Amino acid sequence: MDQLCVVTTGGTIDKIYFDDKSDYQIGEPQIGRILEELGVAFRFQVIPILRKDSLHITEEDRALIRSTVLAQPARHVLITHGTDSMVETARVLADIPDRTIVLTGALNPARFRGSDAEFNIGTAVGAVQSMPPGVFIAMNGRIWDPARVRKNVAANRFEAI
């Protein structure tokens, strides 16, 4: 992997809560800080394009994500995204050729102790380097085909369909 392109769109991974999980805003992307603290042995570029809860991501936003990925020379792309509509965004990217694209996020904000953010980012970094060209979702310690996964909101995890 020459360089990793990281596109950030917001989601829980970047949320900052001001009270008991009701009043929040999407803060600065956390992935750059996380990758730096982990001392990764590859170059990366972070491109923040949205700061939205994924329930509010529109088709226009998905078109922006797609055009951003297409505009980058990097063949390895990691996208941080909210989990509620991650699968829909992955499907919009599915026909992009010659790129390995991995979407990941978190079920708890990266700023929270015990968050799954670092684990999911680590899984996504491994996936983006080892998977063939295509689009994948890295959540809950697994690499998923977006056509065969869904978020189980009640169980708060991703599962095969």
UniProtKB/TrEMBL annotation:
One of its GO terms (molecular function) is asparaginase activity. The active site is at residue 12. SUPFAM superfamilies: Glutaminase/Asparaginase (SSF53774). It comes from the Bacteria. Residues 4-155 form the L-asparaginase N-terminal domain. Substrate binds at residues 54, 83-84. InterPro entries: Asp/glu_Ase-like_sf (IPR036152), Asparaginase/glutaminase-like (IPR006034), L-asparaginase_N (IPR027474), L-asparaginase_N_sf (IPR037152). This is Asparaginase. It comes from Alkalisalibacterium limincola. The lineage of its organism: Bacteria, Pseudomonadati, Pseudomonadota, Gammaproteobacteria, Lysobacterales.
